[in-house]
Design a protein that fits this description.
7 helices, mainly alpha, AhpD-like, 129 residues, globular, homohexamer
């Protein structure tokens, strides 16, 4: 059962970023190794794998939330990439981030857009859409 | 030109909630009457009317942001209704709010779901989907 | 395995508030029934049941975080009660909340203390410590 | 020396709201009586009494911060009144709150303006400017 | 009409930072070019150009809000400079930031003051007040 | 009296970090010298020196709050060190930070854990526990 959740979570996480789970596991290995497993099982396995919403819409929800919170730059970077990996276009993401100016203020939108610019340039360098 | 922005904003706002603009205008009439017009023109006319994203996706972005911020209950109420008015289902919104437990914490998700429950009951009473 | 997590979570949750799980289940039944189970399994079963920290210290951590966030009054109410149920004293909780004035500002501390006052009065009425 | 800080703080606090200190003392009496004194001495005596900024400007800074934080309604209510008591006009406060739409988002500005509307009506009922 | 808002916004923005609009335009050119114009028209043209509050007071409101939010360092840097450019003194800004320790907590005040120190040093190097 | 508060604050602050007060004084010397003294007197002397809670519990409360706020990295770094200096173990701190995933979201917990990893490595290099 646990194994199912973990595998399902891993599969979902890898669709967002092929090497994401490995990077997360490595980053947490020394300080909180169990958290890696809990995140894969709960966040990716229980929640993000649910069939009620397509991955693209889920990523738009996450990108919006992280932009509004404004204090989760590494995660916003991950999810901007993830959103593009599951089918969003750069133009769609820019629309979402611009819209955040209305709800979370102009600074929140600008800082997310500056990060998006970096993400887009990194992807250009890798030949990614 | 201004008139175009205002009319376009009004049209977009009314698709989210037919009586929304009138209620906002009444609420701001005495304290900040000009802000009503700026919100219709900028938020609804400039941003939410842009063609790059469909209204349903825009509302999911907004609902996610307001849930994550956690301090905008009246606006979350408005946008849960708006999301349903432009075609989201209750099940989809519940998925979005559940997902916020991962990114903004369990309390943020729970408080948004408690509000959604109220919104759904109010809509039941009015015979709305 | 899942069953183990659920039962462990339920046991941990009931130590914090005997009727807490039932109330949560009822509150989520109509809008997001699965989330109830995920919260019991992940929050209470995976995290709060971990042996590395005693329940009293865990509640102090939670009360501090919720006070600092400032937008999770229902959850702060639950955890002020939970902290007292697992052995904190009212005086200790007041110390924690006062301390938040330094880190999250005077308003955050005051609003949490006003809520604590209500919680203490409710417990007086029930003859609880 | 302490006595000086307390008296200076009390004097500054009373200029903002004649009965403010008494209300605060009463509210904290049972849960955190010492915090009352620390707030009068530190917040009002050490900081708000400093000569480097006039009371009106200080209140505008506070009102802006509380509006942006969005989770301190009782304190925003106090400081909207305080701002008017030390010489701000309602129109000036409305300008400040409108401006917050740019920096903290439209919901933060709207919720502060709805509160300002209540404050203004309460003051009308008391014949205050 | 649009042209009037844009020109008025540009004029107001340039009083805060002569090269500010050009830098913003360049930063957004590739990711969200329209947002540049919306910010000039709405934030600077509609709101910050309103006659009801002098530019110095407006900047104090903005600096306070950004300090309290704590997640908008680039914008706080801009507005600390802008405040000085429209007539605030460094001592006044330090008063405002110190005051934020009361309302948003000591960390928020400290981080804003560390940034202010950098801004002041950069201005020293340029021979600016 | 003031002198008592200052000395008591200094003593408490030095238990958390021997050189902490000197570093804070130096950092604020040019921008807000008085704030250094107010922080020592109020934060460390009035609040953190209170006998009602042991230093280890106080640091856990602070670390939790700063993790939840998510925008106070320099202060979280200080208090992770302080917590270890007054007797917490790295494992206990990791538990606290993991727990924040539940209340403040996975990103807040991850970013605090990434910082903790850096702090632990710095302490390894200095031969500290």
């Amino acid at each position: 059962m646990e194994e199912t959740r973990y595998r399902r979570g891993l599969e979902t996480a890898r669709k967002l970023d092929t090497e994401g789970p490995e990077r997360l596991e490595a980053a947490l290995k020394e300080v909180a190794p169990d958290l890696y497993r809990h995140i894969v099982e709960f966040a990716f396995g229980d929640i993000l794998s649910r069939p009620g919403l397509d991955p693209k819409t889920r990523e738009i929800a996450t990108v919006s939330a992280l932009t509004a919170l404004g204090n989760a730059q590494p995660q916003l970077r991950f999810h901007l990439n993830a959103a593009l990996n599951v089918g969003s276009t750069r133009a769609e993401l820019a629309e979402v981030l611009m819209q955040m100016a209305v709800y979370a203020g102009v600074p929140a939108a600008l800082n997310a857009l500056y990060l998006a610019k970096e993400v887009f340039e990194e992807r250009d360098a890798k030949g990614l859409s």
